[in-house]
Specification:
A five-stranded parallel β-sheet has the order 2-3-1-4-5, sandwiched between helices. Helix 3 packs antiparallel against helix 4, helix 3 packs parallel to helix 5 and helix 4 crosses helix 7. It is of the alpha/beta class. The longest helix has 26 residues. 58% of the residues lie in helices and 12% in strands. The protein has a single domain, classed as P-loop containing nucleotide triphosphate hydrolases (Rossmann fold). The chain binds adenosine-5'-diphosphate and the ligand Nc1ncnc2c1ncn2[C@H]1C[C@H](O)[C@@H](COP(=O)(O)O)O1. The site of the ligand Nc1ncnc2c1ncn2[C@H]1C[C@H](O)[C@@H](COP(=O)(O)O)O1 has 13 residues, from helix 1, helix 3 and helix 4.
Length: 204
């Protein structure tokens, strides 16, 4: 079984993925952030590093998909390969931070990879408004994310909502996390578990 947690930067994906992996005894697959060779440079100069970063994330995400498929285990994944292409790369192109030529090149690789990728059995979307995202990004405190603009987060949020509204590849659970503190409030975590259990029952 393949479960994936999706959502904008700071929505709580890594935190929830960790908690769910522990609760259900699933294996967790996390994003390649701490050892990512481009991320810090990307935030300093998006235009210069966007293509290199997108190719890096694409490769790393495809490796995860391959591992999930080959493992035969129940795996929960922190962010999907679709988000790299449909949210981040597309947005960078629209912001003129990823050239037409590089975006075309990127998409031809992504489309090739996509034919080998199966959608997760369950996609959990953590929907968060900008103030929630800003608060949680600050709480996490990565130096290179400190200057992230509201405009960038807003554009990504719009893309997420559009993508999720049209998502039909598999089961989808949308959780509004604006008023949920699943980190320190067991009732809020319980509410999320109830909703996931209902979806999982429908899978088998
Ligand atoms: N619903 C929540 N309530 C309280 N704190 C949260 C919530 N979701 C995330 N956080 C906190 O916000 C920060 C960012 O969360 P994180 O899981 O790293 O987000 P993401 O992986 O989506 O970027 C972490 O410090 C986390 O503990
Ligand atoms: N495909 C991507 N393009 C640009 N930036 C990306 C991409 N995937 C992840 N990121 C960034 C956003 C955050 O700064 C870190 C970690 O993501 P998070 O949503 O906080 O887990 O990587």
């Amino acid at each position: 079984m393949h479960i994936a947690v999706t959502g904008n930067i700071g929505a709580g994906k890594t935190t929830l993925t960790t908690m769910l992996a522990k609760h259900y005894n699933w294996e967790a697959q996390f994003e390649d952030v701490d050892h990512n060779p481009y991320l810090e440079d990307f935030y300093k100069d998006m235009s210069q590093w966007s293509f290199a970063l997108q190719i890096y994330f694409l490769g790393s995400r495809f490796r995860q998909v391959k591992e999930i498929r080959e493992s035969g285990k129940s795996v929960i994944q922190d962010r999907t390969i679709y988000e790299d292409a449909y949210i981040f790369a597309e947005n960078l192109n629209e912001m003129d931070l990823l050239s037409e030529r590089d975006f075309k090149n990127y998409n031809s690789v992504f489309n090739l990879m996509k034919s080998f990728v199966s959608a997760p059995d369950l996609l959990i979307y953590l929907r968060a408004e900008i103030p929630t995202l800003v608060k949680q990004i600050a709480k996490r405190g990565r130096d290179y994310e400190a200057e992230m603009s509201i405009d960038y987060l807003q554009k990504l949020n719009k893309k997420y909502d559009k993508w999720i509204n049209n998502y039909s590849e598999g089961k989808l659970l949308v959780i509004d996390v604006n008023d949920l503190d699943f980190v320190s409030n067991p009732e809020d975590f319980g509410f999320i578990l109830e909703r996931i259990d209902a979806e999982l029952n429908g899978l088998f």
